[in-house]
Specification:
- The complex is a heterodimer of chains A (246) and B (219).
- Chain A contains five helices and 14 strands.
- Chain A has 246 residues and is an alpha+beta fold.
- In chain A, strands 1-14-3-12-7-6 form a six-stranded antiparallel β-sheet. Chain A has a four-stranded antiparallel β-sheet with strand order 2-13-4-9, covered by helices on one side.
- With 219 residues, chain B is an alpha+beta fold.
- In chain B, the strands form two sheets. Chain B has a six-stranded antiparallel β-sheet. In chain B, strands 2, 4, 5, 8 and 10 form a five-stranded antiparallel β-sheet that branches.
- Classes of the chains: A alpha+beta (246), B alpha+beta (219).
Chain lengths: 246, 219
């Protein structure tokens, strides 16, 4: 097992920031930069949404991403596609695999039912937070709201689909120090919540923290793994490059 | 395999009985307590469908909330279609097909360029139907709807199996001529449909066909 301390660090780090378990975050990631997500303690969940920063009506599209790549789970080689047939981001490295793309996020009712209530007045910043409200708070900072809340990706969480479509949460899927690297292929508004996965059966509220490490990755080369992962991906990169052509 | 549940309702008693032609869009309202049926007249026809609170389109069908609340990927009799506010919008009360898709979404000119070839952009698509319906239907105009409101839809009659390893594929339909799905509205809902015109994959058996839409008042 690789611990966070001896994990290889990317060159040319731009900044680092911690998202405490349960907390939310948003920011602009420029085309050609990358974010390394690190599950510091194991068992974290990081719900993520992605928007074209310049035209926020263009956003991550679950269905287009999954059907173009013939997968219900995301890992290295896969790209996160927008509804306009372009690549918002690419999963360029991943030592977890099988990230959930269809279960959505917890909401206030679910957190209350599962864990009870622990408001700010009692717990201060250890208060119980839920995924939906966290994402909406961040979306609001950019002039977005409920109409922009679409199905996103749950990094570090895996959900297994049975014969008749029944779902089971894979406990202990992500270990301490596990990382996923996302390269941004457009200027992307990234919106995150580290609240518990909605299907996590753990009885106590104990969402794990996630470290964000931003670094320069450069644009996808001709021999890029994600570009060549599937012919669909290559075409989505062509659409993306046409958008930036000048 | 899921149980196939038939409905006791008689089409002669329906208060709405319309045909949506192959490849076209449709928008309408179903009131709380009414029952809405979609009939796959000729078989293997994907019906891309979105639901909205008929009084506030900001509340809409949520694929992820529906999936996680029922702990199951596919829809059939007993499935409750959950809104983005966590409310039950409709309950599926009868289903002679047995499985409906929640993940495949709608085709669009842009996603067709990715999935098939760059020169497929001019082909008619579900998103074009959705966008046209938003312009053409009074109820969409009244609700102030736009592209922002187009979210991940249901594909009635479409078969998109996912394996335990996570592979997702569009399979030949499990529907057949005359199969139907029926649902009771638990709130007043606006229904936005694209009767899918996709010709590049087996979701419509490469031959888009008409559907029949019916609404019954509560008995």
């Amino acid at each position: 097992m690789t611990s966070h301390a001896d994990m290889s660090r990317p060159e040319s780090i731009l900044w680092e920031e911690l998202v405490p378990g349960g907390n939310h975050w948003s920011g602009l990631m420029r085309r050609g930069t990358a974010l390394r997500l690190t599950d510091l303690q194991g068992g974290a969940n990081l719900s993520a949404l992605f928007y074209n920063f310049d035209e926020r009506l263009e956003r991550y599209n679950m269905a287009d991403t999954l059907k173009a790549q013939h997968t219900a789970l995301l890992t290295r080689g896969h790209v996160l596609m927008s509804d306009m047939g372009r690549v918002l981001a690419s999963i360029i490295a991943d030592d977890v695999g099988g990230h959930d793309a269809f279960c959505g996020v917890s909401d206030a009712a679910l957190i209350r039912e599962k864990y009870g209530e622990r408001p700010f007045g009692v717990a201060r910043n250890a208060m119980y937070r839920n995924g939906r409200d966290g994402l909406l708070i961040e979306l609001g900072k950019w002039g977005l709201g409920k109409r922009d809340l679409v199905p996103g990706v749950n990094f570090f969480s895996r959900v297994i689909v049975g014969e008749e479509g029944e779902l089971s949460f894979a406990a202990g899927h992500s270990r301490a120090g596990a990382t996923v690297d996302l390269r941004f292929d457009m200027d992307v508004l990234v919106v995150l919540s580290a609240a518990p996965h909605p299907l996590d059966p753990k009885p106590e509220y104990a969402p794990g923290p996630v470290l964000l490490t931003a670094y320069r990755a450069g644009l996808a080369a001709e021999d890029d793994y994600c570009r060549n992962f599937r012919p669909e991906n290559a075409r989505a990169f062509i659409n993306t490059e046409r958008y930036f052509a000048q | 395999m899921n149980m196939l549940i038939e409905s006791p309702l008689d089409p002669r008693d329906a208060v709405l009985d319309e045909i949506c032609p192959a490849g076209e869009g449709w928008m309408g309202t179903v009131k709380k307590g009414q029952t809405f049926r979609i009939v796959d007249l000729e078989g293997n026809q994907a019906v891309d469908t979105l639901f909205y609170n008929a009084h506030d389109a900001e509340e809409r069908y949520s694929a992820t909330d529906t999936i996680r609340r029922q702990g199951r990927l596919y829809l059939t009799t007993g499935s409750r279609l959950i809104s983005s506010e966590g409310n039950v919008m409709l309950t599926i009360t009868a289903d002679t097909c047995g499985r409906h898709d929640t993940l495949g979404g709608a085709c669009a000119a842009e996603s067709n360029t990715v999935r098939y070839a760059l020169d497929k952009r001019p082909m008619h698509s579900c998103r074009d139907n959705f966008m046209h319906a938003l312009n053409a239907c009074g109820c969409a105009h009244h609700l102030g709807m736009s592209k922002r409101d187009i979210t991940s839809n249901i594909n009635f009659f479409m078969n998109v199996p996912v394996t335990p390893e996570g592979r997702l594929s569009f399979e030949d339909g499990i529907s057949a001529p005359g199969k139907y799905v029926e649902m009771r509205a638990e709130m007043d809902v606006a229904v936005l449909i694209s009767n899918c015109p996709q010709l590049n994959n087996p979701c419509n058996a490469y031959n888009p066909t008409p559907i029949r839409l019916l609404v019954w008042d509560p008995v």
